[in-house]
Specification:
Elements lengths: L12 H37 L6 H24 L8 H28 L5 H28 L15
Helix pairs in contact: 1-2, 2-3, 3-4
Length: about 160
C-alpha cells in the first residue's frame, strides 16, 4: 500500500459564506430597487398611454426616465448608500448604463425575431422580456456597481440596506 501524501487542510465554507454575504445583500437590494423602478416605469407608461393619451414613444421615453430616476434614488439612498456619490455625473452614467441595458434587450429581440425568424408573440416575449431582461440586468448590475456607485479607496464591502 502506498502512503497518501497529506493535502491541504479542508477549508470551511464559513469564510466563503462571509465573503459572499455582502455581495448577496447588494444583489438583493439592487433587485428590490429594480422591481420598484420597473413598477414605476410600467405604471406611468400605462397612464400616459391610456388616460393621458400620449403616443407610445413619448410615453415610453417619459416612463423610462421616471423608472431610471426611481432606480437611481433607490440605489443611491439604499443599496449603495455608503458610496456617497454627488452631482449629475453619476446620474448621467447611471442613465447611460440603463440605456445600454435597453439596447441589450432590443438586440436580443432583434436577433430572435429577424435573425432567427422566431416571430410569434411568445418568442418575442421570451427573447426580449426573458433572455434580454436577464442579460440586461446583469449588465446594469455590473455597470451600476462598477461605474456609478464604486467605493473609491474602500474596494471591499459596499453597504446594503437589506443586510
Amino acid at each position: 500500500m502506498r502512503p497518501v501524501a497529506p493535502g491541504p487542510p479542508p477549508q470551511s465554507a464559513a469564510p466563503r459564506a462571509r465573503r459572499s454575504a455582502p455581495y448577496r445583500s447588494e444583489l438583493l437590494g439592487f433587485a428590490a430597487v429594480g422591481l420598484l423602478a420597473y413598477a414605476a416605469d410600467l405604471g406611468l407608461f400605462t397612464v400616459l398611454r391610456g388616460p393621458v393619451g400620449l403616443g407610445p414613444l413619448t410615453a415610453k421615453a417619459l416612463s423610462f426616465a421616471a423608472g431610471c430616476t426611481v432606480a437611481y434614488v433607490g440605489n443611491a439612498r439604499g443599496t449603495y448608500r455608503h458610496a456617497r456619490v454627488a452631482g449629475l455625473r453619476p446620474y448621467a452614467v447611471f442613465v447611460a448604463v440603463n440605456l445600454a441595458g435597453a439596447l441589450v434587450q432590443l438586440g436580443c429581440l432583434a436577433v430572435s425575431h429577424y435573425g432567427l425568424g422566431l416571430t410569434s408573440q411568445r418568442a418575442d416575449t421570451v427573447s426580449g422580456a426573458g433572455i434580454g431582461m436577464a442579460l440586461a440586468t446583469c449588465l446594469r448590475f455590473w455597470g451600476t456597481r462598477t461605474w456609478v456607485f464604486h467605493n473609491k479607496g474602500n474596494e471591499g464591502r459596499v453597504g446594503s440596506w437589506t443586510g
